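User: Predict structure, ligand beta-D-glucopyranose.
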Amino acid sequence: MPDPTTLTLEEKARLVFGADFWTTVGIADKGIPSAMLTDGPHGLRKQMAGSDHLGINASVPATAFPTAATTGSSWNPALLERMGAALAAECRVQQVDVLLGPGINMKRSPLGGRNFEYFSEDPLLAGELGAAWINGLQALGVGASVKHFAANSQETDRMRISAEVDERTLREIYLPAFERVVKKSQPATVMCSYNRINGVRASENHWLLTEVLRDEWGFEGYVVSDWGATWDPVEALKAGLDLTMPSTGEAGPATLVAAVKDGSLDEAILDRAVRRILDVHARLRATRTEVTFAASAHHEIAREIAADSAVLLKNDGGLLPLAQDGGTIAVLGPFATAPRYQGAGSSHVNPTRLDEPLAAIAEATGRDVVHAPAYRFDGGKDDALLGVAVDAAAQADVVVLMLGLPDAVESEGWDREHMDLPQVQLDTLSAVAAANPRVVVVLSHGAVVSLEHVVGKAPAILDMWLAGQAGGSALAQILFGLVEPGGRLAETVPWRLEHTPAYVNWPGGDKVVRHGERVYIGYRWYDTTDRDVAFPFGHGLSYTTFAHELLGVDVPDPTIAAATVRVRVTNTGERAGSDVVQVYVGDPVAGVDRPVRELRAFQKVALAPGEATVVELALDDRAFAYWGTQGWTVEPGEYVVEVGRSSRDIVATQSIVLDVPPVVVPLDVDSNFGDWLAHPIGARVLEEFGKAAAAGDSAGMLADEEMAGMMLQMPMVKVADFVAPGRGEQTVRGMLEALERLA
Ligand code: BGC
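Assistant: Predicted complex:
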């Protein structure tokens, strides 16, 4: 790698901006090759000619893997690692250096336009899956660009909106997935988001890009702007942004050159960014070996992921899997021949092939298969279309009705206004179910949809999400039990939009969106407020049955916040299958309000019929911590460890007690009487103060327990004032001096 000091100021200024839409600047005579960055994240979008970040112009054929909303439901990091490796192979063959993904933002509302690109409403799950994906990708010398950093949960006004989020909520909800991937997989790049965070643009946010990302978490790569997220290149560079994409023409470099010359930008800051960019690209190139791949093999991986991520929400009477032989199957809905398998916008992929659900179903069975489109994608009423479908349903043994969100209904760039399926589809379900109640509803969609008018009408519901180019054949295999639906929900399915945590704070206005629900997003909200949901986080049925037995929660040393949870899982059914052990932790008595439970560990296990295995899941200090005024805080006392098959299906619970040091809140002149009482040395000072004051008239109240209880929330200055009128502050300052002497 060339030493930045051998480069001219002008050369350095050019190197921190894109050369064009997708490549960085190369300077041949200085030995600096250009690097290519492209979307991402569920397939390669290397554009052939016209460049854009909206998915408009064509790109080279590439495997369209299931999107993150789908793969999130796999709960299977090992599979995500294979997906990352497959993507890397495609990048290598196409000479792509950095793939723009994964997207690991939190799903704050079902309305988020890019929910299909994100894994989960839970940071642990998103972080684990993201880290695995990155490890798979980067092992082959292709860099990841984890995005969109940070608190970029909506599309509405995405380039100007300020996400107003308190620090605890950022630390516990919106940042931990990024922290996890940085610590576990050291992504080559982090992409800063468009939005502001508490008023400061992500691209100019020194706290975010430098203090948290680098100083605290140890990030070693470079920070790239989302496409067009840089406004002031000087401020951005100072804050810790390294590369601005795409090209800004001559303007950006000229601004930096002028800033260095007039002294408003230290050249060392520019050198630092140049070094980071060149260093990352050089490191990636150094790890590369020859790579080839077969498109058919990647198609198979895409199919495996689709099946492992499909969530069987409901299966009354064991309607699924369908028998290989029997009467006619009516496959209804236009998705049967025009599947919705990916989302729109910058992640749009030109697939190498596309499995049609109808053809795949017909191929997988010897049974007669009939098809009718049943309804129109555009939502228009068409009685003739419906009539044919109802007739087909009436004559069939079983109906597979495909419902979901058509392309036009969700996309990057805007948020949805409701979470309903198109009315025409719900009407179709009613009519079809009346003609034949044996209905399997198959769903295709990127963001959660309300199933309020579906659940009661269909005995079986299979959620395929956006299953990628091989989703059609994965569906056929699941329907006939050739593979099992391996997915568990990575996000709650609420009954109604009004029940969702961000409902009254979404999508904000006047360029501000307040995160009033704080840490209570997803199941943290539904479970803590005990709200009925259609399907809980972590839910998903299998074709077999499992028994989970909590063997114990071992705390080797109660003075250290760490535990191991041991669970025996047995496949008690007659088919092979997989299940996810989910470990949640709750802190029933805490110094701050906390969600009733939070996912702290998980593991997917695949078992043959009758087989059993013992899984051990480690809980570290963060599993018990909240973000308090002094950073990550673990309080001594009782914690409840729960083993569940969803956040609402807790199969075993064990309480543990941690004997960690008590939380000591530093005392100052503003502290409450209660703070003084709780402080180990402060309590002693308080006692002395009480004795000294005992002679005074008002001091008796301190001895009175009931009175003392009422005073817990009262500033010590005011308490002291009552004892010695007019001398409250003076007294407390004296107490603080005594405290310092004893410390
Ligand atoms: C999106 C990014 C994407 C970039 C390049 C932006 O509009 O937010 O996710 O990687 O464009 O296409």
